[in-house]
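Appendix B, example 12.
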Amino acid sequence: MDNAKKFVELLEEGKIRKHILPNTAPDYTSAQERRDLDNYRFFANSFALDEVMKCEVRCYNGDEQI
């Protein structure tokens, strides 16, 4: 139990810094967004999108008109 209390104290004091803890990881958001956009643009200009668009999908309840 003492170890658990010590761990919580270290967390609260900000002495344990791990990437899994909030607000301690480097911000990769803008770089990742740019990479995702580039990948999407590449896909949108490829023949693969044409093949995907040819696929027929089943209707689901959200498509039904009331």
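The CA atoms of residues 16 and 51 lie 49 Å apart. The mean pLDDT is 80.
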